[in-house]
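Exercise 3.2. Students should predict the tertiary structure of the chain below and write it as structure tokens, then compare their answer with the key that follows.

Predict this chain's 3D structure.
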Amino acid sequence: MKKFVGTGVALVTPFKEDRSVDVEALKKIVRFQKENGVNYLVVLGTTGEYATLTQQEKEVVKKTVIEENNGALPLVIGIGGNNTQAVTDQVKKENLEGFDAILSVSPYYVKPTQEGIYQHFKKVSQASNLPVILYNVPGRTGSNMTPKTVARLATDFENIIGIKEAAGDMMQAMQMIRQTPKDFLVISGEDMLTLPIVLAGGSGVISVIAGGFPKNFAEMVQKGLGRDVDEAYQIHYKITPAIELVFEEGNPAGIKAVFNKLGIAKDYVRLPLVEASKELTAKIVSFVDEIK
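Answer key:
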């Protein structure tokens, strides 16, 4: 589980102007992470616009990341949904060679009870040969995983090793840290709360912002884990404007505007998402110039 302590990056899926997958840009993004101190990569999550990709495109993304990474960093793949049988079938049947863990979002839209969430992840755990990282993001799913449910899952299933906690609730994150086993990973899913969660006993982050600013973000997390609090907060406040800007018009439009400015990938997204506005893009460009 130490593989997933530190900074994980939620990878975008870059597109060409015709909205086909830009394989060469994806390779550049992977290299950029490898060269700048991040600890692991997350493939085909929300930031990767997986909902708009065909199965063939998902296979292309997986193959490209695995080959370009070449074993340098642990890889996590997103597999989740609101149909438990479909999720478990995918976990059993999909070729997961090259991946070290699964990130599985809590069932969305249907708003299950806490018992329903527990039973869903029980099935996912039993279906998986890989470690499972839960993903709680009530702003997207419409329901919240409580600390009690997370602690129950962490205790009952050995291969459920952590949670990406993105409720934006510091008190809830602290309760998860307190109530779960000592070796269970409570991973921030909120870039702005990453440092406070790490200092409270969390294990790091699965980050959007770190994709565009990997060196700064990874250094902040490492200093937080090492209890270099003042230095960590200096970096935190340095990159805080980026967090506000990148999420101003939603994800991944903002972080793709960062990659466009860096010359790594274009800022194209797929509908129903749209690119960042000219006004926001100008502010992002200005910030990237300032932070260099």
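Discussion points: The longest strand covers residues 160-165. Strands lie at 6-10, 40-43, 75-78, 101-105, 132-136, 160-165, 185-188, 204-207.
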